[in-house]
Write a structure and sequence with these properties.
Blueprint (H helix, E strand, L loop, with lengths): L1 E10 L3 H12 L5 E5 L4 E8 L2 E8 L5 H8 L3 E9 L2 H10 L10 E3 L3 E6 L9 E6 L3
Parallel strand pairs: 1-4, 5-8
Antiparallel strand pairs: 1-5, 2-3, 3-4, 6-7, 7-8
Length: about 140
């Protein structure tokens, strides 16, 4: 079950400039920066109430973010929802006819297990499922 809007992912060309812009816009700096080697992205996270904004910049030509920005302008890349049990939610969504981009959850940024739902099956929106990794 989707329990919360976890974050909005924003694709950007220049992470430093975008971080400065969102620091001014939100009135507070980021709480975390992270390199996610498996996705070839650098990320910056801002807390906004109970949700987050994630800035994403590709670090290689093969990065999904780099490819995305080659075709589309900067802006909203995905919407992420928190889930209690990512595997159960993946099974539920597959049963409802959604197309998952990965068959198993993988490690994502901000200490999460993640899975993406293909935009073709979600009204044109890339949806990310996120489950907190417990220590």
């Amino acid at each position: 079950m989707l329990t919360n809007l976890e974050h909005l992912g924003l694709a950007v060309h220049d992470l430093k400039a975008a971080t400065e812009l969102y620091t001014k816009l939100l009135g507070a700096g980021p709480y975390k920066t992270e390199h996610v080697a498996s996705e070839a992205v650098d990320t910056v996270f801002f807390q906004v109430g109970g949700s987050k904004i994630e800035l994403l910049a590709g670090t290689s030509p093969d990065s999904a973010i780099t490819k995305y920005l080659a075709k589309k302008p900067e802006g909203i890349h995905h919407v992420a929802f928190e889930v209690d049990d990512i595997r159960a939610e993946m099974e539920r969504l597959k049963g409802e006819g959604f197309i998952l981009l990965n068959e198993e959850p993988k490690r994502g940024a901000d200490n999460k297990l993640v899975c993406f739902v293909h935009p073709k099956s979600a009204g044109g929106v890339l949806v990310e499922l996120c489950q907190e990794v417990k220590p």
